[in-house]
Fold this protein.
Amino acid sequence: MHDPKLIRENPDLFKSMLKMRGMEDTLIDEFLAIDERRRQILQEAQSLREKQNKTSKEISQLKRDKKEIPQTLLEEMRHISDVLKEMIAEQREIEERWREILLSIPNLPHSSVPEGLTDEANEEVRRWGEIRQFPFEVKPHWEIGKKLGLFDLEKAAEIAGSRFPLFLNWGAKLVRALIDFMLDLHTNEHGYIEVSPPLLVNETSCIASAHLPKFADDLFKTTDGFYLIPTAELPLANLHRDEILPGDLLPLKYVAYTPCFREEAGSWGKEIRGLIRHHQFDKVELFKFTKPEESYEELEKLVDDAEEVLRRLEIPYRVVNVCVGDLGFSAAKKYDIEAWFPGMGKFIEVSSCSNCTDFQARRGNVRYRETPTSPPRFVHTLNGSGLAVGRTLAALIENYQEEDGRIRVPEALRPYLGGISHIPP
């Protein structure tokens, strides 16, 4: 959420941003008109209340003096009361729309974000790893996984519906191994504090993290008003809601493994084969609360922490600077980390790492003081997958497939699988 004053003083900047994101800039004009009327009502109501208080005191004094109260004073009080009731009713309507618009305006992109509306405008920043040359015909992970009995998507569809996972035997062990490996790396070596958050959250938390109202269609909602988390970013963003943190604690770094749940309402035309896009999936999430002046430096560190997972697993990848049109609603800047999938012949995202500046912090009222006597300032929040487990497993299967049908286990993962070097057919 933005400071309304910033929109008031920079309407052209916000209109330009909405156009770059492919949105209607008329939203800003509507906000400015409503904002003007809102402030006008507040001023007029304040003036009327002052007059009401003054008249009330006059009437009270007349009563104490046992003097007759002029009819004009009583009529004036009734008139003021009626006008205030009308104003309050109008104010409620205006406040609701004012807040609705404010919550629907996305974050301002950083100057280093490329322009463009689709992922074709994303800019590659770097690559890591050597793409393996196979002496045999490579297969996609869904063929290998089915043959080895690592997962059964057909049975999952019978149990739950399409696009749900069901891992079996070594597939389930690989999932658990990847989760433990990622958590150990981020907590023991990267200094993150591990959190095991709720999987169901309330509406207030969804608004604070900026998942509502924008992404209402992507969230699973229970009959009693709770929401299944689409990412651990949501509960982690609420860890310090309505708090003022000591500046010397920042940056605060958290990591959480959770199952995630998404309707994927807007995924038509996107890659959905195998383990790529499910309604339920596992993810290890990284989250930071930082000082504003340090947030972009901390973003680079967060991206490197996520990259380290792929480097340890020796899976080739690239990092791209995401363009404005493909930028997340809350993000001022976002990097995607895309692993190489030889069986699919392309790079596929396994992590998105974003700097949300003070956009979430304003919604959740998360602030800090540089010193005990300093005025509070909003923190900046950052998030990133470290990594998406199902997609990482899919990349591992494709990159480590062998001609005899087995899958070689990366060295970094072997301690988590009892030292085994290959997944047998």
User: Anything to note?
Assistant: The chain has a mean pLDDT of 93. Residues 4-104 form a domain with the Helix Hairpins fold (CATH 1.10.287.40). The CA atoms of residues 177 and 415 lie 9 Å apart. The chain has two domains: 4-104, 119-423.
